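for the recovery benchmark. tokens below, seq after
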């Protein structure tokens, strides 16, 4: 379990749970109310521990569910312990998030449905309706997508169910129970001037509905294509089936086949629907581009699906164990022990301190009474936790550039980008305190790598802060030794290395007269060992290339960089890299053939008219030096270059 702040929504949840407020859409009101009542202290460890408690309870209830499914205690133990070791379940059990509670509520609902099928008591049906309402009040998308499984499990009692639900008194009881389960949503509209909230106060029922159904808050990606969806379905199937390592896949597949013969048909169908609901069906409804970042976003979603995977695993292990006779009893425990031992190093986040360490250094490096604008979830969450929850740097005024989360907004969270910038500009123009922004969106500015400082009346420049620069060395070491395993933190590290590389390249290429200190050259050399550093170097140097010797030197650098592309490189970075290589290839004396190849690769990564590779290809077509492939690609754009 991490002992420091991490990424995703961890910082926001800790702020909301400790200081009060509203979680991001759809609001997760049940989780928010529970965590605000149960959180024992401001330290992030207490928030993580709360998820661990929900996860432990979910495993215990799943044991009872498994016993009802097959009546075999060994299978139930293997299934429940196996679920606890799956990648998704483990990752969500150790951070403050809504998914452990979602898993617990689903299992409690399923247990009530099983009891209803076995006992036929109306009160169990009413309790199941209450629990389903709680599911909807915690994470309604997962609840809805998993609900077909409940229909399958209750199918054997369909005649009795029909008799019960046609009685007016039972209908009233079920509806009242469901309404009571949904009642936490009233919390969202009763909180006035929340301490922390994405959009601020929810002041009307229409506003509440927009919030709950996420109409003003989307995870969709504008660059997504049908092929992205196909790739995502393949990814989520592979990711879900390999949750217990590749060694567990044969047992999972065997268990899935065995379940058809050893379980009731309704149970077999129910398990399949549990698996499909939060995997294939969910991904089919999303509009994510297939990138490392969005793959990381999707990974918590199958938390209910992997319970079915764990149960199939247990059935498969039992089937193999019976073939081995008396010795077969040790197969299951031995497999789980091996999986736990081999997977634990990758899943252990107890020493995960990159995010908190960086933001502590960032805050401590600011001058007294500074104003700091954060931008983006990866900055706002950790900074908000350290400043508002832990009380660090109380002299600093911390704001969100996009007017989200923090209460000291300069404009409405619903304002346009232009309005956000206007409000920001008016504020900084009349500000007497030093103003800093975590993104290079102001000018003139002084670049510190981790942030930029507004420099009114001056020009653009660079300042090296010893603490920040030393942390840049730490990040290079983490990158080169592949010590960061969490997908979100890898993305975060990748972006930071790019920002520090921009800072150093700006001073290296802009300082033509004076001699640079040795440490600047040394740090540039270190940053250029990373792909982000190599990419930024090319970005700065390609426009300055003048002759064949420059071209050959840049081609050599590009070849080295191409060999060093990490699997988690972003699409934007790849699109930029291939475009730069195309620009290099376009330099004399070579012909355009290789340039066209790289421009097409760039557009494949970022298929947009604004991609400068589209501009380059359009110019090549006008000159008659581009092929049919370029023409076909450009026909997809109404106006290359976004003009």
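predicted aa per position
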């Amino acid at each position: 379990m991490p002992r420091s702040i991490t990424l995703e929504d961890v910082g926001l949840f800790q702020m909301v749970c400790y200081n009060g407020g509203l979680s991001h859409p759809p609001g997760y009101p049940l989780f928010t109310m529970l965590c605000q009542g149960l959180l024992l202290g401001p330290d992030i460890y207490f928030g993580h521990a709360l998820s661990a408690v929900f996860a432990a309870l979910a495993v215990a209830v799943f044991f009872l569910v498994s016993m009802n499914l097959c009546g075999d205690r060994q299978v139930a133990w293997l299934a429940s312990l196996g679920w606890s070791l799956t990648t998704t379940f483990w990752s969500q059990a150790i951070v403050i998030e809504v998914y452990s509670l979602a898993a617990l509520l689903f299992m409690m609902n399923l247990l009530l449905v099983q009891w209803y099928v076995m006992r036929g008591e109306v009160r169990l049906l009413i309790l199941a309706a209450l629990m389903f309402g709680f599911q909807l009040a915690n994470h309604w998308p997962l609840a809805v997508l998993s609900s077909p499984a409940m229909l399958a499990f209750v199918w054997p009692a369909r005649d009795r169910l029909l008799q019960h639900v046609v009685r007016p008194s039972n209908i009233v009881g079920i509806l009242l129970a469901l309404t009571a389960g949904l009642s936490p949503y009233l919390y969202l509209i009763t909180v006035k001037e929340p301490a922390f909230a994405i959009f601020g106060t929810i002041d009307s029922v229409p506003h509440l509905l927009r919030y709950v159904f996420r109409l003003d808050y989307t995870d969709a990606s504008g660059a997504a294509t049908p092929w992205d969806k196909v790739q995502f379905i393949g990814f989520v199937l592979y990711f879900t089936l390999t949750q217990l390592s590749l060694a567990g896949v044969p047992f999972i597949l065997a268990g899935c086949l065995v379940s058809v013969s050893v379980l009731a048909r309704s149970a077999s169908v129910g398990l399949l629907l549990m698996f499909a609901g939060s995997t294939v069906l969910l991904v089919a409804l999303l509009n994510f581009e297939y990138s490392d970042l969005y793959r990381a976003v999707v990974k918590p979603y199958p938390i209910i699906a992997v319970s079915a995977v764990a149960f199939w695993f247990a059935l498969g292990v039992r089937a193999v164990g019976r073939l081995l006779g008396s010795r077969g009893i040790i197969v299951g425990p031995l497999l789980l022990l091996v999986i736990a031992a081999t997977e634990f190093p990758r899943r252990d986040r107890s020493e995960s301190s990159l995010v908190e360490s960086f933001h502590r250094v960032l805050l401590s490096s600011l001058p007294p009474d500074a104003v700091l604008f954060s931008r983006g979830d990866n900055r706002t969450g950790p900074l908000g936790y350290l400043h508002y929850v832990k009380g660090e740097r109380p002299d600093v005024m911390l704001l969100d550039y996009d007017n989200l989360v923090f209460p000291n907004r300069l404009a409405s969270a619903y304002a346009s980008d232009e309005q956000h910038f206007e409000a920001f500009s008016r504020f900084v123009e009349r500000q007497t305190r030093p103003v800093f922004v975590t993104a290079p969106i102001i000018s003139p500015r002084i670049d510190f790598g981790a942030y930029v400082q507004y420099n009114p009346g001056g020009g653009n420049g660079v300042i090296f802060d010893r603490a920040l620069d030393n942390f840049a060395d730490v990040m290079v070491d983490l990158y080169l030794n592949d010590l960061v395993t969490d997908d979100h933190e890898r993305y975060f590290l990748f972006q930071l290395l790019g920002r520090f590389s921009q800072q150093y390249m700006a001073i290296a290429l802009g300082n033509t007269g004076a001699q640079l200190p040795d440490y600047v050259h040394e740090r540039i050399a270190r940053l250029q060992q990373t792909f982000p550093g190599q990419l930024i170097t090319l970005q700065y140097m390609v426009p300055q290339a003048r002759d064949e010797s420059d071209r050959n030197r840049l081609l050599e650098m590009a070849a080295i960089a191409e060999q060093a592309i990490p699997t988690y490189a972003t699409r934007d970075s790849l699109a930029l890299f291939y475009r730069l290589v195309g620009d290099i290839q376009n330099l004399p004396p070579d012909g355009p053939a290789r340039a066209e190849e790289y421009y097409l690769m760039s557009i494949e990564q970022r298929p947009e008219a604004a991609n400068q590779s589209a501009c380059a290809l359009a110019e090549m077509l006008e000159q008659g030096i581009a092929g049919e492939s370029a023409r076909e690609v450009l026909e997809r754009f109404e106006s290359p270059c976004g003009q």
